[in-house]
Amino acid sequence: EMQSQPSKNAGLRFICGIICKSKISRFERILFRATRGNMLFNQAPSEEKIMDPISSEM
User: Fold this and answer.
1) Per UniProt, which keywords does this protein have (predicted)?
2) Total-model pTM
3) Where would a tag sit more exposed on the chain, N or C end, judged by fewer CB atoms within 10 A?
C-alpha cells in the first residue's frame, strides 16, 4: 500500500522586482522554461521613475 507524503520542497514561492519593459517577454520565457510551465506570471506598470544604481539615470 502506497502512501503519499507532502514534499518538503513543495510550496508557494514568488519572485518580484522591476525590469525594463523591453525585457519582460524574455524574462517570462526564462521563468517558464525554468519552472517547466508551472508558474503564474503577472506584471504591472510602475508609475514612479526609478533611478538606475549603475548609471544614475532616471
Assistant:
1) Hydrogen ion transport, Ion transport, Membrane, Transmembrane, Transmembrane helix, Transport
2) 0.61
3) N
47 within 8 A of 55, measured Cβ to Cβ: no
The rounded distance, in Å, linking the Cα atoms of 41 and 14 is 10
Q: 3-state SS of 10-55?
A: CCCCCCCCCCCHHHHHHHHHHHHHHCCCCCCCCCCCCCCCCCCCCC
Give the C-alpha separation, 29 to 46, whole Å. 21
Which cell numbers in the block locate residue 21?
519593459
